[in-house]
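Figure 6 in text form: structure in, sequence out.
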């Protein structure tokens, strides 16, 4: 990793050695203003379209066209059991048992459903710990959940903040806060990777610390699923949810994944919001009174499956499996991001101009690098876009670059580095 070079030849050599290089051809890559494929570093917001997605959806259009309601029972993949076809690949993705996962709804909806079960404050144990500056939807979800219990957000929600002069959280500080909160702490809910800084949290250590004080521990894995190696079962995480439209390339507004640890698999007493699709399938259609949840995460389902988003998701997850799953993706990802980091450091820009705030250790980040740009950040963002580098801008002054192992190449990273160097030359 120490012998990176900034040249196109060197990048081409890395691409030639890359076992995943052909997966790029399985995606539609948007074009840059010059008509060439762009350098798409925005998979942390919306992953690219797998070429297989359209046919997957068309297959369900065909079933609907030809079979109507009978599509629930006939056709290539009957809708009645469609969601079950996602369980194995989803379980592999997050390091879970199939009974621990289900695909349904959207992310914020699932966060609410899980908090109903896993944030049940009492008079003494009512605090919930989250990252300060978490993605706004998570903040709003938490605030409203707290209010639902008649509590004041300011009193119940504890936000973790970096130390003065630092941009990211120290694991030791997270663990110390959990310990300090002790038996006042009901629930810990953090991102697996923070959307703004790109910091990945030590989920195993945080879960252990939370459990040691008797709290529930869950994670919003929007920026972690398809990005990090996850071992949710072995880490003993209580609950988690994620979206599928970022690193899982399942399309805008795509369906969402849920994890509930096996120890809650047979806990019908655990409070939840219920719907018929979470009811025991043996008599779901008997139309009887009295909810009896299915075992596992499936028991949190409300509604019958969203076939069209799931069809895309299934095609997209198949690509992850075909590529060798997360271990293969993560190996390449670490190299891609390290190469990008090397190219940014080569610019030798003073921290007052531009600094990478994402942690340097691979274990503390996913693929994304967040650059804090203190001067003319918007201008740099526009400069990148004009040169065909699609990044994103997050207020007040961060540019996020996310090279994704399934469809980005080392050549992409080298080109982005080149554009940054041009900008830095101009900026002098
Ligand atoms: C951490 C996090 N939480 C929640 C959301 C919102 O998800 P959704 O719109 O699917 O509910 C996003 C991204 O949009 C996110 O990054
Ligand atoms: N779904 C979207 C729709 C429109 C605009 C952005 C999003 C995002 O996903 C933002 C992303 N969660 C982020 O980390 O900024």
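Output sequence:
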């Amino acid at each position: 990793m120490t012998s990176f070079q900034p040249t196109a030849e060197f990048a081409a050599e890395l691409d030639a050695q890359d076992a995943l290089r052909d997966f790029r051809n399985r995606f539609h890559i948007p074009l840059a203003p010059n008509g060439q494929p762009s350098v798409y570093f925005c998979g942390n917001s919306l992953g690219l379209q797998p070429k297989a997605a359209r046919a997957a959806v068309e297959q369900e259009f065909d079933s609907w066209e030809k079979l109507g309601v009978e599509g629930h029972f006939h056709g290539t993949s009957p809708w009645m059991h469609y969601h079950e076809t996602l369980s194995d690949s989803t379980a592999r993705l997050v390091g879970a048992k199939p009974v621990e996962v289900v695909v349904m709804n959207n992310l914020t909806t699932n966060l609410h459903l899980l908090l109903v079960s896993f944030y049940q404050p009492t008079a003494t144990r009512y605090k919930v710990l989250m990252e300060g500056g978490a993605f706004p939807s998570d903040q709003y979800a938490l605030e409203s959940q707290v209010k639902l219990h008649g509590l004041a957000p300011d009193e119940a929600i504890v936000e973790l903040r970096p130390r003065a002069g630092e941009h990211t959280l120290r694991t030791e500080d997270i663990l110390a806060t959990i310990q300090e909160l002790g038996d006042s702490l009901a629930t810990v809910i953090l991102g697996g990777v923070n959307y703004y800084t790109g910091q990945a949290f030590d989920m195993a250590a945080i879960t252990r610390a939370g459990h040691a004080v008797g709290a529930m521990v869950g994670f919003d894995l929007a920026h972690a699923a398809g990005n990090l190696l996850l071992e949710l079962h072995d880490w003993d995480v209580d609950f988690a949810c994620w979206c599928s439209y970022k690193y899982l390339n399942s399309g805008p507004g795509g369906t969402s994944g849920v994890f509930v640890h096996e120890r809650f698999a047979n806990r019908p007493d655990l409070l939840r919001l219920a719907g018929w699709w979470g009811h025991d399938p043996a008599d779901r259609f008997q139309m009887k009174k009295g909810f009896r949840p299915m075992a596992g995460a499936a028991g949190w389902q409300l509604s019958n499956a969203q076939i069209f988003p799931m069809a895309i998701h299934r095609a997209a997850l198949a690509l992850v499996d075909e590529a060798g799953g997360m271990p293969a993706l993560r190996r390449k990802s670490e190299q891609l991001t390290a190469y990008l980091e090397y190219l940014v450091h080569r610019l030798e820009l003073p921290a007052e101009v531009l600094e990478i705030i994402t942690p340097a250790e691979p274990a503390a980040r996913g693929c994304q690098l967040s650059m804090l740009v203190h001067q003319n950040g918007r201008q740099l963002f526009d400069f990148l876009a004009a040169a065909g580098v699609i990044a994103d801008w997050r207020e007040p002054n961060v540019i996020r670059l996310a090279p994704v192992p399934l469809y980005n190449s080392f050549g992409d990273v080298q080109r982005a580095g080149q554009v940054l160097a041009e900008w830095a030359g101009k900026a002098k």
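Caption detail: Residues 45, 135, 195, 222 surround KYN (ligand 2) (CB under 6 Å).
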